[in-house]
Amino acid sequence: MVTVKECPAKTTAQTVYSPASAPDYVPIALLRELQLSRLKNIVTRAWERVPHFRARLDERGLTPDRIRSLADISLLPFTVKTDLRDTYPFGLFASPMEEIVRLHASSGTTGKPIVVAYTRQDLDVWTSVMKRAFATCGLHSGDVIQNAYGYGLFTGGLGAHYGAEDLGATVIPISGGNTDRQIMVMKDFGVTAICCTPSYFLHMIERAAQLDIDIRDLPLRVGVFGAEPWTSGMRDRIERLTGIQAFDIYGLSEIIGPGVAVECPCQNGLHIFEDHFYPEIVDPDTGNVLPDGEDGELVLTTLSKYAMPMIRYRTRDITALMPEPCPCGRSLRRMRRVGRRTDDMMIIRGVNVFPSQIESALLEVEGTLPHYQIILTRHHGLDQMEVQVEVTSESFSDKIGALEQLNDKIADAIEHVLSIRVQVTLVEPSTIQRSEGKAKRVIDRRLQP
Amino acid sequence: MKLQQLSLFSENKPGHVIAPCRLLAREGIDIRALSLADTQRFGILRMIVSDWQKAKRLLEAAGSAVKVTEVVAVEVPDRPGGLADVLSLFEGSSINIEYMYAFPFLRGEKAVLVFRFDQPDAAIERLQVAGINVLDGGALDNR
After folding, report:
1. What CATH number corresponds to the domain at position B54?
2. How far is A180 from chain B (nearest CA, A)?
3. Are residues B42 and B99 in the same domain?
4. Residue B67 to residue B7: CA distance in whole angstroms
5. What mean pLDDT do residues B105-131 have?
6. Chain B residue at shortest CA distance from A403
7. How many domains does chain B have?
8. What tens digit of pLDDT does each residue of A313-361 get?
9. To probe the interface with B, which of A425, A428, A433, A434 has the most B CB atoms within 10 Å?
10. Statement to judge: residues B40 and B86 lie in one domain
11. B82 with B49, same domain?
12. Chain A: residue nearest B12 by CA?
């Protein structure tokens, strides 16, 4: 269920207009003109410099001058993750190494990672969109930002770092991990904003409570959470437990890293920094472009990326574009929060299941913290799903009957969402592995003997 | 007269009861009474300990889900009918026993019964009127 929030009066942050936000308000006609001219440039650049891309256009008998309007983008072929793997490591680069000043790589869990490159100018663009993202969340100079995204090959840490510095905020480059130190720093350094994955922040909340620290008593007022899908129910939970305002930020390494889109204080959809990233929504099966407002797969084109232009990149994230104007006044279109990815989908007894559906079901049951894990197994050729949920001091009862009721209540809530009954297992607190980065929600044991 | 009992959630898997017991042992906390209720999938470890506040703090810091419940401990003669006599006091009353467990004193001919009642105060009154010795925490120490 989506809670519609009043806007923008609700924000706890004193909203200060930041000059960095000026491009967010550019008149739409001007924005479309800018997008078209940048699109033509980037397609030409990729065609001239990336043989892989040129070959794909040749197959279709296309040349860059065929792009005369933004709608013509649909003539271009998609780029998918395997294109990056197939051309590993540097095959999609459009700049010589002399002009490339930074490489990042995805946390590829299977096989080779994917590598992305930045020129000096690309880094400037990235810094500027991250700076605009922080400004959109009501942050400014004087804020103390604890950056708990991982520093290193992962784009989260450095992307947030330079944007926050450019904003004039005080950055604490603490990176991920060492939760007790995170909490100490948050308290002792008067941290006002934190960036990390929402699941890691939940872990911090839990650990702070064990250390008898109530985050509500600290100056922390803003959280900028991303790098994994999370539900609005999870947001409500975080905000209620800590008194902060929690913003969703979206991005992916293939496009630039964090800073592709961010929520404004209205917290109803994420504004896409459209002057640099052109969004489309397509039917994940047919690839046909869908009209605004319809759910489909987000496809992004980098309009100003030199080192590695991404043309019509299939993000595998399911969302919809929200064309109606936002009360905050930004002309940038919004995308709905990403709750699902096309590759997250599990099929259990013929029913399509996404981890976010389990999460929203759990949030309906009072007292369950969203520490859960989905275990997939195969039994006599049938896929089975078990949902493990941690018992909390709040949900735990001293009576067997009450625990069995809790178990049933969770199974009922999941059945209500999925229309199938799955096995629910209550497990001891803190036994589901906590992630300091992206949470691993699904353990797939289907292919194990 | 009511005692604070700690209940811990435990998965029904080998080795899951020993960790909290070890923790309490290391901190010099004595477990005076203990019972384990279990189903196929999970269990509840219920304990009366020498310092429940400290034990609760330690167990929670170690990541356990802990509930404090008020229970009533009474002393009965360790002989056939000892338990039945106590239970008969509540027959036909509105007081419900949610669960109970028993253990013998190390010395002497007494046994201790630990009850969780839905109305502990009313239950204590009834027990005392019947002349049954309702124990406080200290009495469990001196067994």
Report:
1. 3.30.2130.10
2. 12
3. no
4. 5
5. 87
6. B42
7. 2
8. 999 999 999 989 999 999 999 999 998 888 888 888 778 888 888 988 8
9. A428
10. no
11. no
12. A427
Give the alpha-carbon dihedral of A19, A24, A28, A33, to 10 degrees. Answer: 80
Q: Which residues contact A257 (CB under 8 A, 6 or more apart)?
A: A104, A116, A126, A155, A156, A158, A159, A251
| Residue from the list B67, B98, B99 with its beta carbon closest to the beta carbon of A396 | B67
pLDDT for A382 equals 76
The helix or strand, by DSSP H or E, that contains position B20, with its residue range, turns out to be: helix B18-26
The whole-angstrom distance between A303's CA and the closest CA on chain B is: 49
SS3 A61: coil
Per DSSP bridges, beta strands A222-226 and A245-252 are: parallel
- A139, A110 in Cβ contact below 8 A? no
**What range does the domain containing B132 cover?**
71-141
- Dihedral through CA B115, CA B116, CA B122, CA B128, nearest 10? 20
Check whether A1 has a pLDDT greater than 60. Answer: no
- Cα torsion A266, A438, A309, A19 to 10°: value is 30
Asked whether residue B88 falls in the same domain as residue B75, the answer is yes
Residues of B in contact with A425 (CB under 8 A): 41
Which ipTM did the prediction report? Answer: 0.81
Same domain, B77 and B98: yes
As a whole number of angstroms, the distance between CA A82 and CA A92 comes to: 12
Label the pairing between strands B97-104 and A423-427: unpaired
A174-A178-A183 Cα angle (round to 5): 75
Tokens of A6: 């009043």
> In the A/B pair of chains, how many CB contacts fall below 8 A?
56
Tokens 């960790």 -> residue: B19
Please, where are the H alpha helices in A50-119? 51-59, 81-86
* Cα distances (angstroms) measured from residue A350 to each of A123, A340, B112: 45, 18, 55
Residue with tokens 């010395």: B107
Give the Cα separation of A207 and A211 in Å (integer).
6
User: Could you give the C-alpha distances from A304 to A216, A278, A310, A324, in angstroms and in order?
Assistant: 41, 10, 10, 25
Domains and CATH numbers, chain A: 1-341 (3.40.50.12780), 345-444 (3.30.300.30)
